[in-house]
Amino acid sequence: MPADLRHIAVHVEEASDGGFEWVLSERDGRTAWAEIQRSASAAGTYKDAMAGGLVALEAMVEDLDIG
């Protein structure tokens, strides 16, 4: 099991053109969050953007069974 699991969140922001972009943020210390990755283009729906963000998050993990 990894010694330290990273605190990473996925959320969706509405783009100015009405589309939706996923964002991955990592907690820095106890309270601050820093953006570490963002979708290259907007999705047409919130659902599609969230799905894309979850795929990006899973791609960062070598073994999803242990984190």
Tell me the layout of helices and strands.
Elements: E1 8-14, E2 20-28, E3 32-38, H1 46-59
Antiparallel strand pairs: 1-2, 2-3
Largest beta-sheet details = 3 strands, antiparallel
Share of helix, binned = 10-25%
Number of strands: 3
The parts where pLDDT drops under 50 for at least 5 residues are none
Beta content comes to 25-35%
Residue-averaged pLDDT: 92
Count structural domains: 1
Order of helices and strands: EEEH
Which outline best applies?
Answer: flat
Number of helices: 1
Q: How far apart are the first and last residues' alpha carbons, in Å?
A: 8 Å
Strand order of the largest sheet: 1-2-3
The radius of gyration is: 13 Å
Structural class: alpha+beta
How does this model look, in words?
This protein has one helix at residues 46-59, and strands at residues 8-14, 20-28, 32-38. It is an alpha+beta fold. The protein has one domain. It has a three-stranded antiparallel sheet with strand order 1-2-3. A hairpin with a 5-residue loop joins strand 1 (8-14) and strand 2 (20-28).
